[in-house]
Amino acid sequence: MIRPAREIDEHTPWQEMTLGGEVYEPATARYVNTGAWRTDTPVLDREKCRNCLLCVPYCPDSSLPVAEGKLAGIDYLHCKGCGICAQVCPFGAITVKEGGEA
Fold this sequence. Notes:
Layout: E1 40-44, E2 66-67, E3 70-71, H1 84-88, E4 94-98
Antiparallel strand pairs: 1-4, 2-3
InterPro entries: 4Fe4S_Fe-S-bd, 4Fe4S_Fe_S_CS, PorD_KorD
Protein name: Ferredoxin
Cofactor: [4Fe-4S] cluster
């Protein structure tokens, strides 16, 4: 039996792990907290944000969710802190702080 990613830990035998680079079921990325890799953290200033959403298509991790036509915040579980969103924001509403803590 192959275990979903959310059930795998350091005690899981290798025989029960999914082989790397092979996708056996869709939408499993939501179970993996890749944000723990982050070394820098984007911070959203809602006062400056104009909800132009120009940052959204640039995020390589899809960590800028949109709800009702507005930027809903930053998904820190998947954001790796690349800072692209801060670079493309024309209003300076996203800045990057050093460190991985949200």
